[in-house]
Amino acid sequence: xxxxxxxTDKFLTFIRNLSFRKAMIAYILVLxxxxxxxxxxxxxxxxxQEMSIWAKYGERENLRNIVYEKGxxxxxxxxxxxxxxxxxxxxxxxxxxxxxxxxxxxGIILTIFLFYxxxxxxxxxxxxxxxxxxxxxxxxxxxxxxxxxxLGRLCGSVEDMRLELVRGxxxxxxxxxxxxxxxxxxxxxxxxxxxxxxxxxxxxxxYIPEGKISTGKLNSTLALMAEHLKRLEEYSRxxxxxxxxxxxxxxxxxxxxxxxxxxxxxxxxxxxxxRDVEIVHEGNSTDTQISADDSMIMEVLENILSNAxxxxxxKIEVLSDYDKEKxxxxxxxxxxxxxxxxxxxxxxxxxxxxxHEKNESGDHFGIGLHICQELCKKHGGTLSIANxxxxxxxxxxxxxxxx
Length: 403
What we know:
Helices cover 64% and strands 11% of the residues.
């Protein structure tokens, strides 16, 4: 039985996959066989019925001779039959003559109906529903028709078109999300440099009137401010030409650990002028020459400090270190705030994550640590978050360098 079912399924699949032309020929051939068979059976039955009526009126051989000589219509004209028998003979005679035409006409109607129902109705319904859903911008459907005929291929083309539309829409949403992330990163990264500039401005505004700033200190402070402004201009120009954070350019230049540490201390100095939180730095300043992107390192530091300032109560510690064996520069920022919750430890590095979103201020984008992670990756390093055993959050960023 399993063998028979398998053969039957293969035969039905073969029939279902026939093209419309071959399928129509097959339907017509089957119709012709059925019409011929029914016509033959009907003729035989009608002839038998006529012969049985003739038998009532004489010998069959004599009747047959009369039929051959005069024909049935002449017999009916001779009125040798009763009215009822004559009517029955005429009825069977008409059925015998006209049954092929009747069966052919009925068969054509039935064949058209079956062909539409078996080969056209379902795929046309699928195509109609698919077009309607696409018109309504609803792509959550499948235009699948299990046949390799013309409409099956057309349904396959509609399904391919649907998948292309889905891919296009997903790509569009991905572009929107990347642009949203880029805009948030741009707005986020502008805050800390502007805060640094504000710190220098407050410093100058506070001590210049009192005459406590020497000309040398004033010139160096103005030079630092000019450097930060130049960095902001370059950053704005860079962000204008890219489409995602992953496209942020990575440029390694020859520098020294001393130069990087000096820039770290300058940022910390400016932030200490306007914040109630004390920021202290510990690190070895050496003349070791390395190849690194110091602007990217400073951007990561500023983002981490911005995050720490929001949660710290009184103090933030910044630790910098360079491992010659690993050729790795490390920044660690530790605050005395509440630290990370369990959920934050799992999700804080994801973009737009805010554990207490309703209580967050409007200028917090939930993207700072995610930006830091991406920048560390571009520099061959990593970003990790943890809680200190003394309490508070600890964020460690590493950067691979070359000497």
